[in-house]
Amino acid sequence: MLQQLAIGVDLGGTTVKTGLIDSDGKILAQSKLPTLAEENPQAVIGQIVKSIQEVLQHANGRTVAGIGIGSPGLIQNPGGIVKSPPNINNWDVVPLADEISKVFKMRVEVDNDANVAAIAEAKFGAGKDHPNFLFIIWGTGIGGGIIMNNQIYRGLSGGAGEVGHISINYDGLLCNCGTKGCVEAYVGQKHLSKRTIEKLKSNPKSKILELVGGDLEKISPVYISKAAEAGDALANEILVEAGTLLGVMIGGVMNTLDFRVTVIGGGVSAVGDFVYQAIHRSVLSNVQKPLRDGIKIVRAQLGNDAGIFGAAGMVI
Ligand SMILES: [Zn+2]
After folding, report:
1. Most buried of the four, 162, 175, 192, 249, by CB within 10 Å?
2. Count of Cβ atoms closer than 10 Å to residue 122 Cβ
3. Distance 184 CA to ligand 1 centre (A)
4. Does domain 128-300 have CATH number 3.60.40.10?
5. What confidence category does residue 247 fall into, taking pLDDT thresholds of 50, 70 and 90?
6. From ligand 1's centre to the CA of 152, what distance in Å?
């Protein structure tokens, strides 16, 4: 089959990362520019256009199938309209897909970060062999995307897959979204680190403190994981509990969708295998019996380039 080319744009609060990609998932050219988020939408769009022009030069006259953009904020599809992205000044409602297709006269698709990362794993990463899976970004918060029959499932207004705000305790911790007991309020990075600091008060000998040189600000799930792997009981307890809680939510989603596979990416996903085993055990005990065979929890594969791959993957 003739190889196709596509452009993927990862619009972040500080940088615009853009890549020219072929359908085998090879990056042929890359560009990285400051977003100029402190200015206004026109300045940001200018940077996106410039970064696309830079990588487009490397197409050497070959046809480019289109441009995909992963953006923060609420995305209205169809239309690729971006509403109130956090960290970009004066951006209320911008028809981003229209603005970019006006300049390049080609197909332009826009979606949110989590959906784009899910598409990246579906086309080029850990989900390649799985037509149906739940994707989770385990980072500061918990984001998600649903891949159904090899396609992203967006729901009625583009909001599907927000699994971080599934409550696992109707009378639990208050989440940023205003609901009680959201799984994000327990296992999102910030909350996990905060709860660890609390527990360290009664466990001053924990290896976690040793690893961060006594600096509580540095505490993160990856350090907690290292401490656990070095035999620290508290660190092990914290992350096994986090995995168990995440598994309760995942089990509910598997029951809802009749899915078997979950792919986990994001900063916290670098934790040790023992956490994945805890998630797996918890999912098994939370799904209906007929679903237990084939339950899989796998690590995402694309890391920092997921944004570019997934954005390009929307048009290739
Ligand atoms: Zn919430």
Report:
1. 249
2. 24
3. 6
4. no
5. very high
6. 22
Domain 5-122+305-313 matching CATH 3.30.420.40: the answer reads: yes
Q: What is the CA radius of gyration of the chain?
A: 20
DSSP state of 137: E
Global pTM value: 0.93
Between the CA of 167 and the centroid of ligand 1 the distance, in Å, is 7
* Intrachain domains 5-122+305-313 and 128-300 with the same fold: yes
The alpha carbon of 113 and the centre of ligand 1 are apart by a number of angstroms equal to 18
- Is 223 a residue whose pLDDT tops 90? yes
| Cα–ligand 1 centroid distance for 190 (angstroms) | 14
Instruction: Please tell me the distance between residue 180's alpha carbon and the centre of ligand 1 in angstroms.
Output: 7
Residue 245 CA to ligand 1 centre (angstroms): 14
Rounded to the nearest whole angstrom, what is the distance from the C-alpha of residue 238 to the centroid of ligand 1? 21
Cβ atoms of 205 and 255 closer than 8 Å: no
Residue boundaries of the structural domains of the chain:
5-122+305-313, 128-300
The confidence band for 159, taking pLDDT boundaries of 50, 70 and 90, is confident
